[in-house]
Each structure stands twice: as C-alpha cells, then as structure tokens.
Amino acid sequence: MAFERMPGYDLINVVRELDPVEAVRDQEAAERMRVYPKVVGAGPPDFGVAKQSGRDWRILALGAMAPCGARVDLATHLRETAARLGVRGRRELRALADRLDPEVGEAATGTEFSAGASRYRIVRSLGFTRFGADGPEPARATDTEQGPIRSFLIDPAAPVGPSGAALRLELLSLVPAAGTVPERLRMEALDAIRVHPGVVLLPPGFAVVEDLDDRWRPITGGDGPQDARDALAHYFRVILPGFVPPGTRPPSPGELDEYARAADRVDARRAVEFVACGRRFRIVRVVRTIRVGPDGPEPARPSDEDAPNPA
Predict the structure, then answer these.
(1) Contact 93, 82 (CB under 8 A)
(2) Region labeled Disordered — which residues (predicted)?
(3) Closest C-alpha to 262, from 232, 289, 238, 292
(4) Alpha helix locations (H) across the chain?
(5) 3-state DSSP call for residue 77?
(6) Taking CA 86 as the corner, what is the angle to CA 80 and CA 88, rounded to the nearest 5 degrees?
(7) pLDDT digits over 10-56, tens only?
(8) Which residues have a Cβ under 8 Å from the Cβ of 79 and sit 6 or more positions away?
(9) How far apart are the C-alpha atoms of 73 and 59, rounded to whole Å?
(10) Which residues of 198-215 are buried (b: 16+ CB within 10 A; e: fewer)?
(11) Where are the domains of the chain?
(12) What is the pLDDT of residues 177-217, one digit of tens each?
C-alpha cells in the first residue's frame, strides 16, 4: 500500500514567543553555545525502530548497536502488539516477527517492513557533543530525566526556539572531513544530506566520560543526568571491584574504599563532575539527532550492516 510523505521535512519552524519553561531552556542553550562552540561526533550511530501510521512517524525503540539488533527489537515489539490483537492481525504480526528473529530462523535483512496499515523502518541516529576550552559540555541545569525514547513523534515542523533552530542549521550539512573516515562512509554521509536533508533533535542522552589528559573516554551513561550519575555510582561500587581489564592491576583495598566513598558523593550531590583516585569524571550532554526526508526518517546505511553483531 502507499504511505504518506513526511510533511515539513525541509522546514525549521522558529518561534520567538516560547512558554516560560522552554524560554529558560532556550536561553541556557544559547549560553552553552558560546561557552562550548564546537560540535563533535559522539561515537558511532545508534539504531532503532520507527513506525509510520498515517502521516506520523514515531520512535518505538532506540539504542541498538547495529541494525540487526534493531530488527530484533522490532520483532519483540511486534510480538507484544500481537498479543493484544485479534486472530487475523496477530497472525500477520507474528509472521513478520518470526522473519526478523534470528532465534526462529534465518533473520531477514533490510530496513523497511510493513504489516497492515503500518510501516516499520530500521533507523539510524547520530549523537553529538559540544566542546569548549574545558572539554565536553556537561549536563545543563534545565535537563530533565527523559527516560527511554518511546513513542517520540518525529515532527520536523514542530516549533523550536532560536537556539534549537541554530543547532539544527549547524548539523544540516555536517559530514566527516575528507580523510578522516573511509571514502565509502563519507559518500554515504553526503548522499544522506541529499536524500534526507532535514534534521530533527531527539531528547538528549547523557554519557559519563573520564578525562585522560584532555582525551575524554566514555565509561557509561544514561537517559537522564541522574540516570547517568546512578550508572557512575554503580561503576564505582560494582564494576571496578568485580572486573579487572586485561593488562591492568586490580584496585588496592585503599582504592576500593575511595571509590566507595566517591559513589556516596555521587548519590548525595547533583553535580556534573566527580574525582576518585585522581581520576576525573564528567556527566556529559549528548545531542541525539535523526535525519529526515520526504519519505520519513533516514534508514540504516549499507555500511551500517557491516557493524559487529553485539550478540
């Protein structure tokens, strides 16, 4: 069946009269853009599932390391949905779920699937972090605990403030510089700008990073600033005592005690930086984006299928 095109994919709807909460967020975003002027890619893309019903596209899941993982997430969603339907609809959804599940048979590949009046797409999302003189941008005072992205409406024409519009303009034509990635990947990025020329901002994510002589290494993260703090406390209390990377020495009893005290500080403070055993950690804000075009959100790219299967 024919599906509707995405309206406003090439539109940025800037409004100056924001509600009081959004106005404060937009002002803080403007201040951060001045302090952290450089936008840098935040690691490899994430993959997820988007569903189209009518003209609306919504994110069903996000956070898979590879398209194959997103297809398994789609199979799980289809089975959960099928359990609430009648016999006819249940049969169609379960048949598609079985095609996508590697534990049932030879898993289907591809990025586009349909069942009934709905279309499903395996989509890619890129993360970016702002950098300034003191490193990556930390979580903002106005950031909230969003939780996992579920049923997020991908609406490129939704009103945005001046700072949000400026960020989207900044990201529209951002591609890897020549020589920094294989040419095949760079050409795919250029094709993405042509086919999916718009950018939509998703709710931000948050990473815990460690300062290693001004090289910032990701350690863990979460869906909100407090979620990331909880993950850092877990890292201090559970991961460090229980897992020693190959080629490194285990923490001494004194160091473990200091890490435990650091975990207590993380629990007690709504801060963005913590120090333990001479190591410096920061809760960093990650801007999550998805490209859009007339046919909807950008699907996974051919080279994405080469990503290692996390299983």
Answers:
(1) yes
(2) 292-311
(3) 232
(4) 20-35, 67-82, 87-100, 162-172, 183-195, 225-234, 240-242, 253-268
(5) helix
(6) 100
(7) 999 999 889 999 999 999 999 999 999 999 998 899 999 999 998 99
(8) 93, 94, 97
(9) 12
(10) bbbbbbbbbbbbebeeee
(11) 20-41+127-202+289-297, 49-121, 207-284
(12) 888 889 999 999 999 999 999 999 999 999 999 999 889 99
Angle of helix 67-82 relative to helix 87-100, nearest 10 degrees?
160
Give the residue among 199, 208, 192 at the shortest CA–CA distance from 42. 208
- Collapse the DSSP code of 293 into the 3-class scheme (helix H, G, I; strand E, B; otherwise coil) and give the result: strand
Q: Is the pTM of this model over 0.70?
A: yes
Closest CA to 133 of 27, 212, 208, 214: 214
Q: Which of 96, 118, 116 is nearest to 107 (CA)?
A: 96
Q: How many residues does the chain have?
A: 311
Q: What is the rounded CA–CA span in Å between residue 206 and residue 150? A: 17
Which amino acid, one-letter code, is at 97?
A: A
Task: Please name the amino acid found at residue 204.
Answer: P
**Residue 292, number of CB atoms within 10 A of its CB:** 23
Phi, psi of 283 (to 5 degrees): -85, 115
Task: Yes or no: say if 176 and 186 are a contact pair by the CB < 8 Å rule.
Answer: yes
- Residue 204 C-alpha from the chain's centroid: 7
- Cβ-in-10-Å burial (0-12, 13-18, 19+) of 234 comes to middle
